[in-house]
Amino acid sequence: VRKMDFINLSKTSKESKNDSYTKQAQHIWSMLDDMATSNPQSYKNFIDKTLKEGREALKPPEAHMCVKTSLLEPKKCTLFINVFSWNRIPEPKNDSDPIPVFGKELIFDKNVSFINIAFSPQILEKYGKNSNQKEELDMLIDLSIKFIQNQNKCRIDETNFSVLNSNFYGDLAQNLVNLTQKQSEKLKSDLDIAKEALDSMGLKNSNLPDNLLNELAGIGMDPSSSKESKRNLIEELDEKKIPEYEEKFIQNNSGCIHEIRIYLPKISSFKECDLNIDKNEVVLNALNYRTLKIALVKNGQNYDFDENKIEAKFVKNKSILKIKIPCQ
Length: 328
Description:
Elements: H1 2-11, H2 14-38, H3 40-58, E1 62-73, E2 77-85, E3 102-103, E4 107-109, E5 112-119, H4 121-127, H5 134-152, E6 155-156, E7 162-163, H6 172-180, H7 190-199, H8 210-217, H9 223-238, E8 244-252, E9 255-263, E10 273-277, E11 281-286, E12 292-295, E13 297-298, E14 301-302, E15 311-315, E16 320-327
């Protein structure tokens, strides 16, 4: 149906298209004006709800967990399964429906392999790594493995697997590009999101044709515009830099504190970071940045510390990651 809409659209003159869309847009604004006049509070609630849902719908995938297992065929090697939470993955309509999952092809990196897959946030909240029932987590991992085997025509060890402390393997930014490019029909499209937003206003599909929604959703964009967007994305990824940071040692009544401040203006949440601290260094992988490594050295030597007393806090309004490590 949508394909036919595009064909009809291509046969329509630009002027007549504009006239049709102008009338449709006037109809929408008229309904919004009526709502604002007759019930200002409902209008405000609607605007707030629509803006919130729009932001949620457009959020990129978030790394949820990384499962380590073994690939048996076509090549024997360690396999890392990066599981992402993504709002564009639909939920099952009822308990008897299969759980939707979206994934890409296997990637081989030296002597290991990895793959990126995604579930809806609601499914991961119920069955993911924070599930109260281990059986539910195992079921989700089993589903993931079967999906990967079927899609990639490979064989995976289904019994010996573990969930890592890190939420992902590899470069987070590259994994996101891999997962989101060339989206499948299984995903909610921009058209679906536009329909849902307008439906919540009481503007059903019978009132607005798909070709108008296609234009509103940006699906019918000029091909050169699409190419330009892809080119800009590649340039942005190529310009990734190591985050800037400051460190100092603070002496107080309880001892010495190694304080590190890492400046991350390109991210808005700690969920976009993967922080690891071992006895020798701090390693930070953050979205849109290259890997940062900070040696844990005091007076030219590594120092001992209690891992249980380490503090890490992300200050959202300043986009600063603060780390405090008690040193001896």
